[in-house]
């Protein structure tokens, strides 16, 4: 989005406080074609509401969760593997039952979702920053710089993203082997996810940059004498951000799933700071002994989260794609 | 009997907020063997009329009222299938861009044969024979050979001939041509128009030509319909409408057409047409920032001296020099531009005229020759500080008003950027004041600074481009086809503005255009380019009255004649 000037921000505030003002930014948003295409798609509205609720539950976990699964004083091994409330031997304190250490599963899911989302967001942002920068440079400079960057990208694309993440995670584990791994697990995870997803951004941004750099506004900037770095950042970047936003949304879902996969495989978040993937991994051990809820509920939460984010991303892609209008 | 009758046609495009009436209550008709021209500026609804006739209105547009008859049979209420059978069989269509209206993966023959056999009960062999005849009749030499080729093996003009042949495949009664020559060079335009006129008479086909170009109208049409914002404002015989226009819109439209035969000081102000924005605020240039501190070194002779300028582009790269292939865009070009004059460069597409502009501004680096600007040799500048000093002295106005402004920046920031970058003003408040004055000066009004480019029309955007170019206080301005994307009325305004600014600021200008008429109105001296070479350089009137080079003569002969246009209108100029 273009930046909001002070005047416009003031106008928007005035609008909200009910003062008479020229049509401000807010009313522009509500009147835009994009907002209407949003309202027209029922699925998208439901997905947006679903995403919002899940995000709220995740980020407000310390306040909305009935228990604190990290408070060792409040959990008891005697409560382990209690089934959900509608089953026999249930405990009304634990709506969705407990896991093998007696932690409330519902609270675990809220907190786990929070970690999954934070890891997802951070890795998407990191991947976007790397990808956009390299894509801009490759597209604008062309020639050898372009060849080198895009060959690296091509080579990386021949490996599945999860394999790269595993590889980086493995290397990092080797380096930080001696130190307590739990401190670094979070950062290693973000770096490995970011390094496996940057290629998509780089390719898209490079393509759009090559189109934009031949447009006359870029030539006009060059005639004025503005250096390449500023042309890239101020002129080209804002004009190539549309597709990036779409990829970022869809990649958020992908990053969450990949994180869950890594955690499930035991190389992601440790059991002391469980993400949804870790919870599923724990539940997996008890699946055959009848305690299905430990794996199923976190799995459902993961599916819901990814589905909602993906539906939003699909709509965004259609809404921003002029060809499909 | 009329082939096509349009009665009270109204076409509406409903949108979320309102209904846009693209064509409002329009009547017109064409006889067999005659050509009807529909002329108007962008947004006049002229193409919509054509699309309504052929039944290809774009969703959500629909015919809201009126009737269309083909040979007395109503066709606007036919089902989709019936309309489909009509297309190609009874109505042929010629599109604007011959590059995209042919299938690149099929030979010309297979496209023609397919169309012929869809509509006529002919065997493959007969269809083939007919295809060859058609190709022959549209004036393509060696029809048997060339018909086996793919579209990319034809030049633009030849391709448009193939498109015409396609339109005539099934002996239609009506041919609709939507801007048939807009994408072509003048020399080819003349041939295509002649061909269309000839075929129309020979085959007794009615033709509907949709165009924005008064020259095309004057050349081939028998009747003309002038449209303005969906309304039919004038309709009648071409000689009459062009010679003695009655409606004020037609009058102003005709007076805005640049004339190749007479040089005028200024174009008549056409206030009927565009909301020209706020009237230009007068600034005293001698005391204003714009006129001040033009601290450039004075030069005695010409401002720009170009000697033996050479530019070639690598078409195929290779590590072995002998394997590389080049395209020579500019060949040993030499000319001078005197201070304060407007030097025109005219030529067809691919003649290298835009390349020269980009070489002078430093967007490309020449492969040979020298460009002397004042006392500085531009090709050997390496020091970034010197380069910037040069950049400040010359600015460029681009052709496409839609891509030459960054859509994500406010107009105010677009214009302030060069001032801030070159540190031409001491404070932000001063920059703001200068930007407001510049916007006022190009006739947009200071309040338009906080809008984004997409809120402006093409002509207004071109004014923004001009304001941005002036923001470095240049002394040399390069205009690369500044008005070829604009409607004539707006073109007249922009050309007037450029003339005024040049006078006020004493600018030296390089004016590049493919349009001889525009060049004649704007320039003191003219260079004619062809295939990268400069054919002729001479004074403006000299060139038009006594062209020396054969190519110049050819170009002048091919210009659409505007003799029909009323002379009366010139007097208001």
How would you portray this structure in words?
The complex is a heterodimer of chains A (325) and B (573). Chain A is 71% helix and 0% strand. Chain A is an all-alpha fold and 325 residues long. Chain A has one domain: MetI-like (MetI-like fold). In chain A, α6 runs parallel beside α13 (293-320). Chain A is globular, with a radius of gyration of 23 Å. The two termini of chain A are 20 Å apart. Chain B has a domain at 304-572: Rossmann fold (3-Layer(aba) Sandwich). In chain B, a hairpin with a 2-residue loop joins β4 and β5 (73-74). In chain B, α15 (458-470) packs parallel to α16 (488-505). Chain B starts with a strand and ends in a 15-residue tail after the last helix. The A-B interface holds A 2, 5, 7, 33, 36, 215-217, 219-226, 234-235, 238-239 and B 16, 358, 361-363, 387-388, 391-392, 394-396, 398-400, 403-410, 417-418, 421-422, 450, 452, 465, 468, 472.
Major sheet of chain A: size, sense and barrel closure?
none
Average pLDDT rating of chain B = 85
Give the low-pLDDT segments of chain B. 273-278, 566-573
Calculate Rg of chain B over CA atoms. Answer: 26 Å
Number of domains of chain A: 1
Descriptive terms for the model:
A: 325 residues, 71% helix, 0% strand, globular, disordered N terminus, B: 573 residues, alpha/beta, six-stranded mixed β-sheet, 19 helices, 20 strands, disordered C terminus
Q: Gist?
A:
The complex is a heterodimer of chains A (325) and B (573). Chain A has 325 residues and is mostly helical.
Secondary-structure topology with pairs:
The complex is a heterodimer of chains A (325) and B (573).
Chain A: H1 6-16, H2 25-31, H3 33-40, H4 42-59, H5 61-64, H6 105-141, H7 143-157, H8 161-175, H9 181-212, H10 216-224, H11 228-264, H12 276-284, H13 293-320
Chain B: E1 2-14, E2 19-31, E3 35-39, H1 46-54, E4 62-70, E5 73-74, H2 80-86, E6 91-94, H3 108-119, H4 124-137, H5 143-146, H6 156-168, E7 174-178, H7 186-202, E8 206-211, H8 214-220, E9 223-228, E10 231-237, H9 238-243, H10 248-256, E11 304-316, E12 325-337, E13 342-347, H11 353-361, E14 368-373, E15 376-377, H12 384-393, E16 394-397, H13 411-421, H14 428-441, H15 458-470, E17 476-480, H16 488-505, E18 508-513, H17 516-522, E19 525-530, E20 533-539, H18 540-545, H19 550-558
């Amino acid at each position: 989005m273009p930046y909001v000037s002070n005047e416009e921000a003031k106008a928007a505030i005035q609008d909200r406080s009910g003062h008479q003002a020229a049509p401000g930014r807010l009313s522009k948003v509500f009147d835009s074609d994009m907002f209407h295409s949003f309202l027209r798609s029922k699925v998208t509205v439901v997905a947006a509401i679903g995403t919002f609720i899940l995000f709220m539950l995740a980020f407000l976990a310390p306040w909305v969760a009935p228990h604190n699964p990290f408070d060792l004083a409040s959990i008891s091994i005697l409560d382990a593997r209690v089934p959900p409330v509608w089953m026999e031997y249930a405990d009304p304190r634990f709506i969705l039952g407990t896991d093998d250490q007696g932690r409330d599963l519902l609270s675990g899911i809220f907190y786990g979702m929070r970690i999954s989302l934070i890891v997802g967001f951070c890795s998407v942002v990191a991947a976007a920053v790397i990808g956009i920068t390299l894509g801009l440079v490759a597209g604008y400079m062309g020639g050898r710089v372009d060849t080198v960057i895009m060959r690296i990208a091509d080579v990386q694309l021949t490996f599945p993203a999860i394999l790269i993440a595993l590889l980086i995670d493995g290397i990092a584990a080797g380096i930080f082997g001696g130190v307590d791994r739990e401190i670094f697990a979070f950062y290693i995870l973000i770096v490995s996810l970011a390094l496996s997803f940057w290629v998509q951004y780089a390719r898209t941004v490079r393509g759009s940059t090559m189109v934009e750099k031949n447009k006359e506004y870029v030539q006009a900037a060059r005639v004025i004498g503005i250096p390449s770095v500023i042309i890239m950042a101020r002129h080209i970047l804002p004009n190539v951000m549309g597709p990036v936003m779409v990829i970022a949304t869809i990649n958020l879902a992908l990053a969450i799933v990949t994180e869950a996969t890594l955690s499930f495989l035991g190389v992601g978040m440790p059991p002391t700071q469980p993400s949804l993937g870790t919870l599923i991994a724990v539940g997996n051990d008890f699946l055959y002994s009848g305690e299905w809820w430990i794996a199923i509920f976190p799995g459902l939460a993961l599916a819901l989260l990814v589905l909602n984010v993906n539906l939003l991303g699909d709509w965004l892609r259609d809404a921003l794609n002029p060809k499909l209008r | 009997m009329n082939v096509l009758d349009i009665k009270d046609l109204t076409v509406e495009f409903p949108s979320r907020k309102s209904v846009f009436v693209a064509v409002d209550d329009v009547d017109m008709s064409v006889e067999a063997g005659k050509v009807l021209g529909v002329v108007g500026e962008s947004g006049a609804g002229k193409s919509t009329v054509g699309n309504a006739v052929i039944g290809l209105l774009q969703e959500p547009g629909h015919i809201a009222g009126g009737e269309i008859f083909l040979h007395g049979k109503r066709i606007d209420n036919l089902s989709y299938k019936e309309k489909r059978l009509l297309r190609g069989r009874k109505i042929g269509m010629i599109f604007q861009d011959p590059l995209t209206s042919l299938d690149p993966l099929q030979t010309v023959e297979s496209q023609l044969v397919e169309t012929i056999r869809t509509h006529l009960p002919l065997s493959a062999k007969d269809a083939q024979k007919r295809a060859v005849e058609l190709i022959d009749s549209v004036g393509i030499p060696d029809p048997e050979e060339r018909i086996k080729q793919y579209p990319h093996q034809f030049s633009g003009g030849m391709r448009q001939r193939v498109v015409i042949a396609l339109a005539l495949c099934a002996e239609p009664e009506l041919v609709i041509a939507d801007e048939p020559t807009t994408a072509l060079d003048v020399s080819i335009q003349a041939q295509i128009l002649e061909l269309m006129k000839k075929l129309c008479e020979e085959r007794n086909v009615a033709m509907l030509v949709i165009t924005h170009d008064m020259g095309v109208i004057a050349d081939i049409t028998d009747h003309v319909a002038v449209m303005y914002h969906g309304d039919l404002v004038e309709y009648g015989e071409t000689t009459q409408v062009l010679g003695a226009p009655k409606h004020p819109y037609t009058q102003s439209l005709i007076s805005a057409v640049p004339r190749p035969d007479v040089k005028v000081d200024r174009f008549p102000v056409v206030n009927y047409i565009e909301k020209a924005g706020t009237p230009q605020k007068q600034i005293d240039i001698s005391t204003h920032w714009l006129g001040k501190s033009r601290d450039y070194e004075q030069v005695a002779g010409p401002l720009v001296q170009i000697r033996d300028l050479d530019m070639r582009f690598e078409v195929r790269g290779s590590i072995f020099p002998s394997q590389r292939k080049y395209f020579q865009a500019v060949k040993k070009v030499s000319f001078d531009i005197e201070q304060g004059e407007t030097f025109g460069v005219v030529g067809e597409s691919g003649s290298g005229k835009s390349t020269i502009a980009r070489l002078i501004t430093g967007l490309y680096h020449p492969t040979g020759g020298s460009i002397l600007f004042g006392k500085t040799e531009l090709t050997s500048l390496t020091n970034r500080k010197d380069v910037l000093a040069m950049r400040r002295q010359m600015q460029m106005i681009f052709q496409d008003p839609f891509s030459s402004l960054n859509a994500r920046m406010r107009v105010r920031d677009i214009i302030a950027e060069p001032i801030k970058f070159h540190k031409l003003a001491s404070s932000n408040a001063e920059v703001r004041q200068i930007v407001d004055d510049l916007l006022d000066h190009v006739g947009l009004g200071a309040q338009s600074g906080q809008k984004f480019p997409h809120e402006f029309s093409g002509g207004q955007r071109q004014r923004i481009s001009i304001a941005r170019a002036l923001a470095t206080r240049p002394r040399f301005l390069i205009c690369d086809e500044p008005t070829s994307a604009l409607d004539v009325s707006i073109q007249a305004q922009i050309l007037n503005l450029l003339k005024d600014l040049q006078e006020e600021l004493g600018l030296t200008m390089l004016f590049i255009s493919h349009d001889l008429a525009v060049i004649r109105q704007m320039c003191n001296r003219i260079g004619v380019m062809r295939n990268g070479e400069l054919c002729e350089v001479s004074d403006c009137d000299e060139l038009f009255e006594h062209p020396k080079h054969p190519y110049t003569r050819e170009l002048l002969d091919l210009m659409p004649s505007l003799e029909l246009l009323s002379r009366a209108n010139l007097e208001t100029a």
